[in-house]
Every structure is written in structure tokens, then in C-alpha cells.
């Protein structure tokens, strides 16, 4: 039986079609992003999560010649926005600016969680770590002779239940830093959770609130403007961005007190490694550039840009760290 010969042009066309079929997944991934990418911020505008997301979105937009749009989805201590990303398609078009709260604290704080902070996400990169700062309104500090953490503790003990403590939401590091302070000092303040650091700061500056353990970058402009008085930072070491301001441990004689924050990008579980690596590499490049790096350091943030594997290990370690802290604080959210 004689084999049928195909014309050369047909052979070439068949070969090209076969190669294209096998290469489709690679082309689809290398084609990313072909449309705008959404960065979900699980808190209201104006806080550190929002500030960092917007700074990074600009740099990613330049790098990929595509829009990276910040979408604020506040509520439930960050769980609403984080859950939206956990349930999104793992195609690289919906990513999360996660926090120590959404990825390491809420699991131990909330009786019911809509997602698993490890199984339901693909870590991309840690963007920055920041200390929190204990701030009080300047006018209230002046009126009540509060010039230090020790002064604040004395005032709080003399006025149990009369002070209002603002936070960016239940389960955030801002909330937990305050709960840990209350537990270690034997003071009682009424906790008011807001839908983000921005609204909480407005209430604090407006005099409705008395104290907040805010992320430093969000409070820094108000400290510099003379609206808020920084009593101490919550990290183990003082912050170079606030020279002369002690740690809570030092100023309050509270051995072992530490409650810092961090922020990083994550995609849904199943995000292709190629996309995660491309985002990480561009974030790392942006954070190492002098202009952005110096801007973040001046605000009190410490830039990172580590690998997806390093970020995953960091989240695992933070989950283990915060479990006993949440338990010791007695904080719980139903």
C-alpha cells in the first residue's frame, strides 16, 4: 500500500498547529498580564496596608505596562477582603495585600474562619515589616500631663473603663498590640474596632478616641504634623524613623512586650509559580531602588521583597508565634 504524501505546506501547517497546542499554557502564562490586575486591600483607605499597596501598584504598573488597581474591601479584621482573594480564580488577576492579621493572627482570634491562611493562598513576597506606635492626641496628652508610657499607665489606672482604644479592626496587630498592653499593665480600655487604620486615625485625631497602637507609616504624617504624640514603638528595638522614641518594653518596664506588623502579596492557591515569581522579582527590584526604599524607611517601614518560599516560611513562623500571644491576651471574636 502506498503512503499518501501531504503537500509540504500542509506538513508545515500541521507541525505549527501541534507546536502551538503544546505551547499554549506557556504562552498563556507569558502573556500575563493582558488586562488590569486587582490588588485587594482588606482594609479602608488611609492605613499602612493601603499606603503600601498603592506604592507597589504604581511600580508594578510600570514594570508590566498594565494597570494594577487597588480595591479596598474592608471588614471582619481583614477577613472579607482576604476571603475574596482566597476564592478567586488563580490566574494572576486578583491578588491580596495580606497582613500579619489576615495571615497569622485571625486564625487564632476568630471562632470561625472563612479560609485557611496557609492552604488557600500562594505566598508571593513580603513587602515590608513595620513597628506599631503607641499614639495619643496631642491635646489630650497635654491636658492630662501624659508625656510617657508610664504617665499613660498611671492615667489609665486612675480612669478604668473611661479611655477609648481605637484599632483598624478585630484581629489586626493594632488591636492585639493594645490587648497585650492592657493585659501586661492591668489596665482596662474600651476597644473600638474601625474598618481600617484611616477611619480610626480620624477618630483619634478628632478626640473621640484616646489611644491607638497604629502601624507607624500611617501615623507618621500626623506625628510630624503635631496632631499625635508618639509615646513608644511596639517593636523589640527603637525605630530609626522616630529618633528618641523608646520601645513600649523600655518605657513601660514591660519585659517581653513586642507586637510588630508586616504586609505582603499573596495570590489564591494554585497561582502559577511563573506569575508569582515574576511579581516577586519586580517588587524586589522596586523596593531596592533608592527612591522607594528611602521613602518607606522614612515612614518607618523596612522593605523586604523576599522569595515566595521565604515568605511562606515567614507566615508559618508567624502563625506559631501569634498563637500563644492571642491566647495570653484573652482576645476572642465570635
What does this structure look like?
The chain has 13 helices and 11 strands. It has helices at residues 8-30, 48-64, 79-86, 100-109, 138-143, 149-158, 173-185, 197-205, 216-224, 248-252, 273-288, 290-299, 308-329, and strands at 37-41, 68-72, 94-99, 121-130, 132-137, 164-167, 190-193, 211-215, 228-233, 261-268, 302-303. It has a 6-stranded mixed beta sheet, with helices on both faces. It has a 5-stranded mixed beta sheet with strand order 7-6-8-5-9. Helix 4 (100-109) packs across helix 13. The termini are far apart. Residues 9-28 have low confidence and may be disordered.
- Identify the strand order in the major beta sheet: 2-1-3-10-4-11
Task: Characterize the largest beta sheet: strand count, sense, and whether it forms a barrel.
Answer: 6 strands, mixed
Mean pLDDT: 91
Helical residue percent band: 40-55%
CA(first)-CA(last) distance: 78 Å
Described by its quaternary structure, the protein is: single chain
Q: Uncertain segments of ≥5 residues (pLDDT<50)?
A: 9-28
- Which percent range describes the beta-strand content? 15-25%
Gyration radius, rounded: 24 Å
Describe the structure concisely for a colleague.
Helix content is 47%, strand content 18%. With 334 residues, it is an alpha/beta fold.
Write a concise keyword list for the protein shown above.
alpha/beta, 13 helices, 11 strands, single chain, 6-stranded mixed beta sheet, 334 residues
Amino acid at each position: 500500500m502506498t503512503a499518501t504524501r501531504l503537500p509540504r505546506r500542509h506538513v508545515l501547517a500541521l507541525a505549527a498547529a501541534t507546536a502551538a497546542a503544546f505551547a499554549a499554557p506557556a504562552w498563556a502564562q507569558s502573556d500575563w498580564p493582558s488586562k488590569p490586575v486587582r490588588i485587594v486591600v482588606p482594609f479602608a483607605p488611609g492605613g499602612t496596608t493601603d499606603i503600601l499597596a498603592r506604592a507597589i501598584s504604581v511600580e508594578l504598573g510600570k514594570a508590566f505596562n498594565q494597570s494594577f488597581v487597588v480595591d479596598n474591601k474592608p471588614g471582619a479584621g481583614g477577613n472579607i477582603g482576604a476571603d475574596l482573594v482566597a476564592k478567586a480564580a488563580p490566574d494572576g488577576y486578583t491578588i491580596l495585600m495580606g497582613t500579619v492579621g489576615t495571615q497569622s493572627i485571625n486564625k487564632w482570634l476568630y471562632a470561625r474562619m472563612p479560609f485557611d491562611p496557609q492552604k488557600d493562598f500562594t505566598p508571593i513576597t513580603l513587602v515590608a515589616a513595620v513597628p506599631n506606635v503607641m499614639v495619643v492626641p496631642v491635646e489630650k496628652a497635654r491636658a492630662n500631663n501624659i508625656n510617657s508610657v508610664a504617665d499613660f499607665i498611671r492615667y489609665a489606672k486612675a480612669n478604668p473603663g473611661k479611655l477609648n482604644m481605637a484599632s483598624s479592626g478585630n484581629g489586626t496587630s493594632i488591636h492585639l498590640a493594645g490587648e497585650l498592653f492592657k493585659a501586661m499593665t492591668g489596665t482596662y480600655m474600651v476597644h473600638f474596632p474601625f474598618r481600617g487604620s484611616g477611619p480610626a486615625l480620624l477618630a483619634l485625631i478628632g478626640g473621640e478616641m484616646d489611644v491607638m497602637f497604629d502601624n507607624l507609616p500611617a501615623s507618621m504624617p500626623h506625628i510630624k504634623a503635631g496632631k499625635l504624640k508618639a509615646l513608644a514603638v511596639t517593636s523589640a528595638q527603637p525605630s530609626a524613623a522616630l529618633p528618641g522614641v523608646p520601645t513600649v518594653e523600655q518605657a513601660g518596664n514591660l519585659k517581653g512586650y513586642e507586637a510588630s506588623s508586616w504586609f505582603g502579596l499573596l495570590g489564591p492557591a494554585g497561582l502559577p509559580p511563573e506569575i508569582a515569581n515574576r511579581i516577586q522579582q519586580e517588587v524586589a527590584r522596586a523596593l531596592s531602588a533608592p527612591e522607594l526604599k528611602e521613602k518607606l524607611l522614612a515612614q518607618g517601614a523596612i522593605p523586604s521583597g523576599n522569595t515566595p518560599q521565604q515568605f511562606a516560611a515567614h507566615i508559618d513562623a508567624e502563625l506559631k508565634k501569634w498563637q500563644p500571644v492571642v491566647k495570653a491576651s484573652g482576645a476572642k471574636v465570635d
